[in-house]
Amino acid sequence: MRRRRAFAIAVLTACLLTPAAASANGGKGNYARPNPGRTTPQRRTTRRRIQTNYKLNGQAFEGQFGWNPGDAKRMLQVEVHHPALPGGKDLVPTHLFKNPQKDGAREPTIIPAHDDLGQIQFANTARSGRKHTLVRGDAELAKHLKPGEFGFLIHQRQANQEYAGGKVDMTAGGGFNKELTKLWDTHISIPVGVRRKTSTGNKKAGVITLNMPQGYPGGDFGAGRFGLYEGGQWAYGNLTLVKPKFPSYIGKSQKRAFAKNMRTMLAGFNAVANFPGDYNGGDPLTVKTPAEVRNAVAMMIKGVAGTSAEQAESRRFFQDSNNQIYCAELAYTAMSAALHAPLNDKTVRELGISSDTWSRFKREIGKHNSGQESAFTSKNSAENEMIKHMQIGVSPRNLKAAHEYAPENLRAAESKKMAFGPMTAADIIANALAVQFPRSKWGEQVGSRVQADAWSGMKAGIMSQLQGSGNRSQMTPEQAGQVQQLLDGVGQVIAANHGTYDNFRAAIKPLLDRARALPGLQFVPPHMFHLQAMSKDRTWTSQGLLGLEYGGTVVNAKLLDKVVTSQEVPAGE
Hints:
Distance between the termini: 28 Å
Helix content: 25-40%
Radius of gyration: 25 Å
Low-confidence stretches: 1-43
Shape: globular
Number of helices: 19
Largest sheet: 6 strands, mixed
Strand order of the largest sheet: 4-14-13-7-9-10
Structural class: alpha+beta
Strand content: 15-25%
């Protein structure tokens, strides 16, 4: 009996899967193998599949955010109210992504997480009323980000004025906060899969996050630092995980090398960068061209391992208001740097870095990977000590810049691209309108009216974002006049009935092209990652080197029911 009971426990443990994990195995999951001591394959015709599902507990969600969406899918949609809509309202999938693991269906893959490193409980299970536990706050997310893998977490604020109750009320028209132009996506964290020691000394797979500023939310999953809470208050009901996709011309070995280079760039820039203290979404980009990227990489290397004079030079560079880096910009800068500047001897010589400084940089990497204090941790250890768990390294000596692997006819164009193409003011508005007020779905007669009303509030918000704050305006008076004229033109196109959506897109394209040509007025807001992951069925394509795909929706475990189901399946599957 003891042997049979042990076998049953092992089967249950091995077969608990998230829906995404089951899909990754062709939808079959990890099945228990027949026990030769109990039966033979010929006699065994069926066996039981155990699968774990996570469902939103609407009552728990309502207790934190004041409204009950009922299920996770509704939590990721917004109900738009406007008198022009049939019935006065429509449900819009603003935060639902096509799931590559589920044949393109817009069904969320739920990944439970929590701010605590210790064991916590899910909400009551719907089927049995039993309590289930999550062993560690990052345990499930670690199944989606294996050690060395990374992605981007888009923080979507649930506790807000405009989306309260999961709806946007347009019946009065206009008056929108500028956050509406950013889809209420307020922060980008960079989660990285790691192996770290537990309290018992064993190594377990886990996830850390890197952020700008370094102390927000703190890089680990302990004591409120994951970002699900802020100042003891719930701010986020969910976060969206998206993962990078390399160009098709990058092979497997290059992908591994670039991924290591990306982790090193993340650690380096995270250590030396400064967050803009008066950030309001209008901070200028530090780098907009590959040449500027390479210069920033040189400054990062000097900041980590340079002489006293070089470190002072690096500090001046990153403290300059034009070179400070905000949350989404950290990801944009580090990814672009990794693709254009492999950290090997050849590249570093071209950057003008001395052999002594480069040798010290490599020694700092060695200390970091061996668990010793290094510049990568000492420069931000008070803010994010968990970075010590992330393995980094130099690039193979034969690794070239990413565009050099492209077919010859594409190489010149690829060499000018950043990891992600920045957005202009007109891009931000046009795409925020497209996601929240889908003209293509509603048609020109209705869509033009709804978008025109939304535009009236968005326009003021985007001008505020463009102009920065205090004395840190991005625009000269001449540029401000150009942008105002351009936005007026965009508004006229939006308000007009063009007969078909294709005609509307054709009419607005010249204005968007003009906006992209304006010097300096470029942004990488958090919701750019959101739009990029939706690019196949939305309007935004970043024209960058990297793509993004949906990886799952991270939800606080205390808002979820853990439901274990089983069914008989053919043994041959």
